[in-house]
Amino acid sequence: MAGAVEAKLAELGLTLPDVVPPLASYQPAVRSGVYVYTSGQLPMVDGKLAVTGKVGAEVTPDEAKELAKTCALNALAAVKSVAGDLDRIARVVKVVGFVASASDFTGQPAVINGASELLGAVLGDKGVHARSAVGVAVLPLDAPVEVEVQVELAGA
After folding, report:
1. pTM for this one?
2. What is the DSSP string of the chain?
3. Looking at the DSSP assignment, which residues form a beta bridge with residue 98?
């Protein structure tokens, strides 16, 4: 039975995806005490990237913001895989977003807002977090965006 967080996702017209299988030697998420750390999540849907390229060149900032939202959904799936239930999230502590950027693109914070806004919409005050938004030359599989999330669990 889905909990309150997954019910909120459904209310927003979203479903929690399956955990994206690792592309190399790592786990999608690891729990340490009351914290869950996700690996960087790409905007994978049904096992593939819908869009590739650099933001500010082949990918528009608006497209990239939507892709960051997909990354956050994938991160929530990874959290659930080790926490068992998204309702155990006490708060999102930190979000780190990487944006594969054209050399003159400086809108990384607005792109990563896609992830931050999704977490806020789904988790309310528990979704408010510290954050970094970083421009990089290239990401795995030529993904435009990658997001990692750290959450604290309640009742751990």
Report:
1. 0.96
2. ---HHHHHHHHTT--PPPPPPPSSSS-SEEEETTEEEEPPB--EETTEES--S-BTTTB-HHHHHHHHHHHHHHHHHHHHHHHS-GGGEEEEEEEEEEEEB-TT---HHHHHHHHHHHHHHHHGGGG--EEEEEEES--GGG-SEEEEEEEEES--
3. 134, 146
- pLDDT by residue for the chain (156 residues), tens digit each? 568 999 999 999 999 999 999 989 999 999 999 999 999 999 999 999 989 999 999 999 999 999 999 999 999 999 999 999 999 999 999 999 999 999 999 999 999 999 999 999 999 999 999 999 999 999 999 999 999 999 999 976
Q: What is the DSSP string of 73-84?
A: HHHHHHHHHHHS
Can you say how many angstroms the Cα of residue 146 is from the centroid of all Cα atoms in its chain? 7
Q: Sign of dihedral through CA atoms 92, 136, 139, 109?
A: positive
Q: Structure tokens of 110?
A: 């607005």
CA nearest to 59, candidates 22, 23, 105: 105
